[in-house]
Every structure is written in structure tokens, then in C-alpha cells.
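Entry type: protein chain
Record version: 2
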Amino acid sequence: MKDFKLPIVTTVVVFITLAMIEVMVKKPLLLLDRFYPGAGWLQVILISAYAFVVAYNMQDPAKAALWRRRTWLLFSIVFFGQLLLGLFASPIFLMSGALHLPIPAMIVAAPLFRGELSMMPFLFLTTIILSGPAWCSHICYFGGIDALAATGKTVKTAVRNKFAIKHSILIAVIAASLLLRLLDVPVLWAVPLALGFGLAGVAVIYLFSRKQGRMVHCTMYCPIGTIVQYAKWISPFRMRIQQDCSACARCSNSCKYDALNRADILNHKPGLSCTLCGDCITSCHSSSIQYKFFNFSNVFSRKVWLCISIALHAITLTLARI
């Protein structure tokens, strides 16, 4: 049953966070401030209202999956839309006025290559600490596109050598970044390699995610997705399958992250690639799939996770630019 507690709390969290940024950060991070000084407050209000609407609708498990996919796709459209405007209209739409490749792998590769951090790794690490894997279900700009491509019928056959493939890609990206830095390779030479990796990711989305109805790019190809699968344990949020589960496997059809194969269900715990998205909850007729947050109830645990994840989504939607 819907109430106003979750959307109100989420709205307050978003408003206070963005208001603090508006007041304390001298450089205008909110886009409207760059056009009209002080107009950032209007953006704060609009994004806070957006967070209210999203939280109000997502508290209903039956609507949560649809709203998550729509708002996530909106995030991708806004992110890449600002990039295109920054390239062809005005650099004011870019975070720093300088162009960086919009490829998730660059969150880890770029700092290793340059030897310095930027805002995107900071935002990424913040989401991991606060909500575990929410980056891979609510925020990543490539993920929204992968989710759109994977809307078809989910292939239930387990992916062969999944563990070896995704870890090999992660190791290769880290090793290549360090090697390029060690060899002092010019940025102009490194860019085509990174761009090629990103375009290969687009091919994976089109050739595999679209055909298999599961997010192959996010769960196997993207090195950030692999990092999240392990780093998410920093967060206290979990998803558990209760002992009363009948192993009907209906939830497998709704899981686009390949985290609810039969072995996972019998183990009463979603697989490593689970992002806590919660799309599987409504497919479980026995309500056996539940959120866990310390010793709190399933309902409260889910609301806390939604509050944090939606707030992070709204805040990052406001701040994340190339």
C-alpha cells in the first residue's frame, strides 16, 4: 500500500544534498546556474519533485520494475544528450569544459592512466558505499541502454565461462591502463583504444543483450560491473530467498542480470551479479524473495534501499556530466 513517508524522506534527502552543493560549492555544478546565476535553486526544486514522483510510484512492487527502467533510460538520455549538446552546441553542457570518453570502463581506466581521480569515480564510489550495487541498476549511463536492449524474452541457458570472461576483461583493462601510463603513451594514442573498447561494448549490447533478453554487457563485458559485484558487499543491503521458496523459477524470467539461475534459487541466494533491482519480487507468488538490511523487516529494508537508490539516481542525474 502506498503512503507518503518514502517519497517525502527521499525528497528531503535530495533537496538537502543539492542545496548544500548549491550553497557550498563555488563552481556552478548545477546546469541552470551556468545559464542564469541562482537558477540552480529552481533545478534543485524540480529534481526534488522528480524524486518524490519516482519514490511514490516505485514503492509499489508491481510498478517498480517499469519505473526503474523508464527513469534509468531517462538518465542515459539526459547524460548523452548533454554530451551531444556539449560537443555541438556549447561546452557549458560539459562538467569541466573538456571532453572525456563516456565509457563506464574509463571510471577505473582513466584514473589509472592519468594517475589522478575525477568526479565520476567519486560518484561511483559513493553509490557503492551507500547502496551497494545501485550503480548497476539505477545510475550507469550505459546500463540504461543495455536494459532497454534486454527487454525481450530471457534466455535461461547459463552462460559458458562467464566467470573467466568477465574477470579476464577486467584484468585486461587494468593492465592496459597501467601499461599505457608506464610507457608514457600520449593521450591521443590511448583514446582510439578506449573508443574501440566502448564501441565493442555497444556491439555486445546489440548482438547479445538484445538477442538473449539479459544484460550481457553489464554482467560480463563491463569491468565496472565486475567491480560492483564484489565491492557491493561493503553495503549492508542483501537479497535473500526464504526457505519456503518452491523453486518454481518464475523469478528467472524477470531477472535480466543472470542472477537467478536454478542453482542460485536452490542456494536461496541470488547470484553474484544481482544488483538488488527487485524486478523479481512481483514474480514470486510466495513472496520468498526479500530485501535484508541488518535485522529490520523486509518491508522496511526495501524502503530504505529504495530511498537511498532513488536519491542517488536523482542527485547523479543532476550532477553527472562528461
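Comment: The mean pLDDT is 92.
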